[in-house]
Amino acid sequence: MTKDPRYDKVRKMIEANMIGEFRDIFEYIPKTVLARDLVKNTGRMTDLINKAEKFSFEEIVQISSLIGVEYNIIVRLIARQYLKQV
């Protein structure tokens, strides 16, 4: 399976500091694409988007691999989002 080219766009936007929290990723790639690539249903993806604290480390590592960034960058995006939610 070929990786969706929109992941590269997300990586570039993260590197340009144009994505501040995890949910911002979905301005560039549909959650259905990420859900499919993580082998998750869209309900689980929606739950993760709305409740960032529910991410597993495995999911974070998979997402970072798909986007092509270090996992700590995804952790930072999730943390920013979580801190705004509490």
Index terms:
mainly alpha, 86 residues, 62% helix, single chain, 5 helices, globular
Would you summarize the structure shown here?
The chain is mainly α. 62% of the residues lie in helices and 0% in strands.
Largest sheet: none
**Strand/helix succession:** HHHHH
Distance between the termini: 38 Å
Number of helices: 5
Helix percentage: 55-70%
Give an overview of the whole structure.
The chain is mostly helical and 86 residues long. It contains 5 helices and no strands. The chain has helices spanning 6-15, 31-38, 42-50, 57-67, 71-85. Helix 2 crosses helix 3 and helix 4 packs across helix 5. The model has no long low-confidence stretch (mean pLDDT 95).
What is this structure's SSE topology?
Blueprint: H1 6-15, H2 31-38, H3 42-50, H4 57-67, H5 71-85
Helix pairs in contact: 2-3, 4-5
